[in-house]
């Protein structure tokens, strides 16, 4: 499989990444924590909260699992293969534990929440199970585990937002950072386990969000991504009680005003909730990036109804039309798509392909349907599409996306783009890599530029995944 295709096949979206730490973090008298994150950006962001809580309890993070006194896996439950990955990793860690009997192993995050204490029965090497709303309790749970008992806290909360905890940036490039603005999800998409693993939706105090963005800017960061399962339903404050209330469009403006050189991105938008006000806020603030991740999940209205997405094909298309009318043809748009959902016919699958033709997405994250126990779809619908059919449909969706990604990138060749440099290119030390406004990766010769610089790059060629060019003096058109 080519690299270009790989970025689109979306196992990467729920990737696994090991946390690296800076030197000053590792101090000899402290106990050492090794933390590995799986799943979506929310989980990566949560690991930074966990590192902060654990620092308070006398733990420093380490990049070496061999050195660790405590290993956390922050897990994902979105598809069966996400959980299998964690189970395989636990088997590996079991070998380490046999060599080092004092080592404690904790499973955090969505798989912990889904399986609760059952995980302790199934995976005997696990000492601690902690759900996403119980991270403040970790120091106590560890003390309990240190006495040889198994420790579990999977209570979900209606209030917890960790607003007062300053995340410790892990594996950071020093330029881009995530800010969690809300937790949980109140939608009930029938295929999805997230409402069960992350509980009810709640929004974080906007002032604490702005403060975090200001601190990041002062530390040299130049881009923040505001994170939530459904950012467009962000809502803080009760207007009926006379309190000032804030919606997502207002929050976007507040964060954009932190500094014109701080780029602002956000994810994820739900087609039913993204409003014209959000689109206008994007248009009116130069530093709010021209890119929207707008998962469709299917292009067929009957399937969308079975999925309980609460919009149909036409509604989705109208949203795309609004985006293009307000933000122009250049606005980057990406999607999530599921193939082979319960009872999906060939004709309905074709509707997904024709929706993609209509939109011509810049990127896509595409998945074969994986039934999750306890979800509405698992309870009410038959997972009746054979795996090879799901996979064949998936491959068709991926191939079409590949074609569209290339076409969308080709439109941008010959133009100058303002690129925020994130670091050295993965392909060559002589090149730098960054992103343009539409979230596209741009590679160009290093010259004297550094991480965190804004550079104008004339794009001269492209692949489906990358724009390639060289720096120029003039300002982007
Ligand atoms: N909150 C986001 C997405 C969260 S999960 C949203 O509403 O769009 C990320 C993606 O995983 C989903 O958009 C969906 O495409 C995919 N996904 C979720 N549950 C799945 C399942 N059971 N099988 C396959 N893909 C799934
Ligand atoms: Fe899952 Fe739907 Fe919520 Fe996204 S909006 S997290 S897909 S239930
Ligand atoms: Fe996975 Fe939980 Fe995110 S299930 S996709 S880590 S919210």
From TrEMBL:
Annotated keywords: 4Fe-4S, Cytoplasm, Iron, Iron-sulfur, Metal-binding, S-adenosyl-L-methionine, Transferase, tRNA processing
InterPro entries listed in its UniProt record: Elp3/MiaA/NifB-like_rSAM, Methylthiotransferase, Methylthiotransferase_CS, Methylthiotransferase_N, Methylthiotransferase_N_sf, MiaB_methiolase, rSAM, rSAM_horseshoe
Domain MTTase N-terminal: 31-147
Highest taxon in the source lineage: Bacteria
GO MF: 4 iron, 4 sulfur cluster binding; metal ion binding; tRNA-2-methylthio-N(6)-dimethylallyladenosine(37) synthase activity
Record PROSITE patterns: MTTASE_N, MTTASE_RADICAL, RADICAL_SAM, TRAM
Cofactor binding description: Binds 2 [4Fe-4S] clusters. One cluster is coordinated with 3 cysteines and an exchangeable S-adenosyl-L-methionine.
Residues that coordinate or bind [4Fe-4S] cluster 2: 185, 189, 192
Limits of the TRAM domain: 410-473
Pfam families per record: Radical_SAM, TRAM, UPF0004
Family statement drawn from the similarity comment of this UniProt entry: Belongs to the methylthiotransferase family. MiaB subfamily.
Quaternary state and interactors: Monomer.
Biological function: Catalyzes the methylthiolation of N6-(dimethylallyl)adenosine (i(6)A), leading to the formation of 2-methylthio-N6-(dimethylallyl)adenosine (ms(2)i(6)A) at position 37 in tRNAs that read codons beginning with uridine.
NCBIfam families hit by this protein: miaB-methiolase (TIGR01574), MiaB/RimO family radical SAM methylthiotransferase (TIGR00089)
Designated name of the protein: tRNA-2-methylthio-N(6)-dimethylallyladenosine synthase
The organism of origin for this protein: Persicitalea jodogahamensis
